[in-house]
């Protein structure tokens, strides 16, 4: 398979879907919000965007499987699987806060080969493919070179359900706030990850994520020279749904802190 060609085709598909989301953002009707669970919102924009993505991605690899947030389609693929979040940062979108985007990853026999994240408000397309570098709008990106927590800016997310780990998380957050330039909470994990990939953040940590939140972003971080682990320092983050993504220089320092609380 020509991964670069597939990546370029995915970018074109994502741009088309992004145009739809951008248009809807100008006339969005908040009364059409639905709730999938506690504080877990969805709108017709998420659902329609996913349908558009699935319809076009199916044409690229007809026998590929799909894992999608809004369950437009769910099927196993023998070799290839698309993992899609049609609108990461739905809460931001609903409230008119400019930080949300589209995340699409292609996995081949369980390993990532293409990742695309499109942050819609700044028009920034982040992407990478197996055998290639990581890019943002055709410009190569790399993780930061900051050597330690005192010189770093961090990103995280806050859980909006399943609060049983909240107390230990807040202790970790307190330590990270005191040891770094600060901790930012944008509200879209895919965006946090690609901002880590391009060096805006030096590290990102969050638990209770879903695979469509991070499938593309984690791959782009790795392709940009960064590292991705679960909170134990292993590679089981797809199952554990917890992510530590760093520039590689902060990994040991952050894992030491995380392990004190998790």
TrEMBL record:
EC number: 3.1.3.25
Protein name, entry field: Inositol-1-monophosphatase
Cofactor: Mg(2+)
GO annotation terms (biological process): inositol metabolic process; phosphatidylinositol phosphate biosynthetic process; signal transduction
Family statement drawn from the similarity comment of this UniProt entry: Belongs to the inositol monophosphatase superfamily.
This protein's UniProt keywords: Hydrolase, Magnesium, Metal-binding
Source organism phylogeny: Bacteria, Pseudomonadati, Bacteroidota, Sphingobacteriia, Sphingobacteriales
Keyword hit for Lyase: no
Catalytic activity of the protein: a myo-inositol phosphate + H2O = myo-inositol + phosphate
Residues bound to Mg(2+): 69, 85, 87-88, 213
Species whose genome carries this gene: Pedobacter petrophilus
One Gene Ontology molecular-function label: metal ion binding
């Amino acid at each position: 398979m020509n991964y670069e060609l597939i990546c370029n085709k995915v970018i074109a598909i994502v741009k088309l879907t992004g145009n739809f989301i951008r248009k809807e953002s100008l006339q969005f009707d908040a009364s059409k919000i639905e709730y999938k669970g506690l504080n877990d919102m969805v709108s017709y924009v998420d659902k329609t965007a996913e349908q558009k993505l699935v319809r076009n991605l199916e044409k690229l690899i007809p026998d590929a499987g799909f894992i999608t947030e809004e369950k437009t389609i769910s099927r196993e693929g023998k070799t290839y699987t698309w993992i899609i979040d049609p609108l990461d940062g739905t809460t931001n979108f609903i409230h008119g806060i400019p930080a949300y985007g589209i995340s699409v990853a292609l996995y081949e026999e369980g390993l990532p080969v293409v990742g695309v994240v499109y942050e819609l408000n700044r028009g920034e397309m982040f992407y990478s493919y197996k055998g290639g570098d990581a890019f943002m709008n055709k410009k190569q990106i790399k993780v930061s070179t900051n050597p330690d927590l005192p010189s770093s800016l961090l990103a995280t997310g806050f859980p909006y359900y399943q609060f049983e780990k909240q107390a230990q998380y807040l202790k970790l957050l307190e330590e990270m706030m005191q040891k770094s330039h600060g901790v930012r909470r944008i509200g879209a994990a895919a965006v946090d990850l690609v901002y880590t990939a391009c060096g805006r953040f030096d590290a990102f940590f969050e638990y209770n994520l879903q695979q469509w939140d991070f499938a593309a972003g984690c791959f782009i971080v790795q392709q940009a020279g960064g590292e991705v682990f679960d909170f134990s320092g292993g590679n089981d983050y797809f199952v554990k749904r917890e992510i530590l993504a760093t520039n590689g220089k902060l990994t040991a320092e952050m894992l030491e802190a995380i392990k004190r609380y998790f």
